[in-house]
Structure formats: structure tokens, C-alpha cells
Amino acid sequence: MAIPHENSVVSSPGKGVRDRLLDVAEEFFSDRGFDSTSIRDLAAGAGCNIASVNYYFGSKENLYAEVWRRHLLTLRDARIASIDEAMANSGGKPDLEDLLRSFASAFIGPFVDESGSRLITLIAREMINPHLPSSMFGNDVIRPTISAMQQALTQVCPELPESKVPLVVFSLIGQLVHTIRMRAMSEWTDDGAFAMFEPAKVIEHIVDFSAAGIRGYAGGKTI
Hints:
This protein has helices at residues 17-32, 39-46, 51-57, 60-88, 96-108, 117-128, 136-156, 165-186, 199-218. By secondary structure, it is an all-alpha fold. 29% of the residues are buried.
């Protein structure tokens, strides 16, 4: 059934059709899920005809991917900027904890405030019922982010064996991704077990844990 315009994002008449479709798609995909949102619903919500979806995006699947892409590019740029900022503010003496904290905060930050709740719901739905191309995260976000972090880590810890750098970054990002997953899961349950994943505490734990492991590797220890 078509959604009445007064309940949709069509209340932004200054936006073009493409932007309105992206906005309403994000709202509907988050609230209802991909399968329960029809092209007719999307067109009605954006105040356009059904043909506009195919004209601008080619399919509902492409529209869904584009909703994600505009978030992913923003997240990627913020994460890389956090690395650049930590290095620029080091005064020539980069600090490992400062680098890790800046990166972790930028990585998790968008998901913990009120504005990130819709993105968290999208993530939770995508985890349960995936529709994104398998290469999308890797090409658009993971590769450039990992590359930037590896370069920074090599500069901050020049004594860290080169062979360990990719694994260290992989471990760090794995901890952060898991934190986001736990945050997403908390959106689907009232179980108090997720209360322990308070973002600030988790970030400090990841910083301390990762810094200790990195220094252990740099010192030639296996821990």
C-alpha cells in the first residue's frame, strides 16, 4: 500500500527527486527492511512516479546500495581524517595511544549518537538479511582505511615488524567492527547484557589492549 505523503520525507520540497528517493529509501529500509519496502512505496514517499526509481537508480537493489554508499564514503573519509589529524597534531612525535584513540572514536562515533540510530538499524537488518554486493565494503571503505592506518602505524612504531602491521590493523578493526555489531544487536533486544558495551569504556579498552599488543610485537614478544 502506498504511504501517504504526510508520513514521508517528501516534506523537503527543495530537494531534487534523486535526493528525496535516497532519503525516503533510507527511512523505509531502516523501519521496514528491504523486502517489505516496494518501489511503489518509495515513489509515493518521495513524491515522484515509479519510473523515477529506475531512471535514477535502475532498480531497488541499486537504490539500496546507493543509500549505503553515501554513508560508507562519509565513514571512510572520517576515519582517514582521524588518522591524518592524529599524525598532524603529534608535533613530529606521534603517540600510539593518541592514534588508536582518534581512529577508534571516529570509527565508532557515528553509531552512538541519536543520529546514528537509523544507520545502526540498517546494519542490523543487513547482518540478518544481506542485500549489498560482497565487494562494496572492501573496495569503498576497507582497503583505503586499512592502507591509511598501516602507513600511520609504521610511522608511529617503526620497530614493529613489517609483517605484523597488516595483522595488527586487522585485529584493531575487528574489535571496532564487533563493537558496532554488538551495538546493532542491542537495538533488537532489551537484554541488559549489552549495557556493558558503553562506547567510551569500550574505546579505552580497545586502545589499552591494542597498544599493549602492538608494543609486545614491537619488542619481539609474542602475546
